[in-house]
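S2.1 Query sequence (Tetratricopeptide repeat protein)
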Amino acid sequence: MEEGSPAAAAALLERAAQAEPESRSIREALARAQFNSRRYADAAGSFRWIVDANPAEDYAYYGLGMALWRTGDIEAAQEPLAVAVAMRPDLRHYVSALTQVRATLRARQV
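Output structure tokens follow.
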């Protein structure tokens, strides 16, 4: 991924995840690579796996929310982003993402 090919990284990490299915670190790297290669639904699935395996992973909630947002499921994105902010209110990018999602949802109601 550092060399600019998130799609290639995702392909490699998918094989690594098959070999080490319980590895959260591999799954997080895979989720990031999927997100960066614009495979948002796949990224959401990978981030959801991390959340299910370890509900204390604030970054996984953030990643899940961001991936859902990018798929267009803004309503579903709100909850994991809110959890991430509740866990880490000091992280501005978490707060900013949640604020933007909520503003978009409010704008849709008008």
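The mean pLDDT is 89. The domain at 6-109 is CATH 1.25.40.10 (Serine Threonine Protein Phosphatase 5, Tetratricopeptide repeat).
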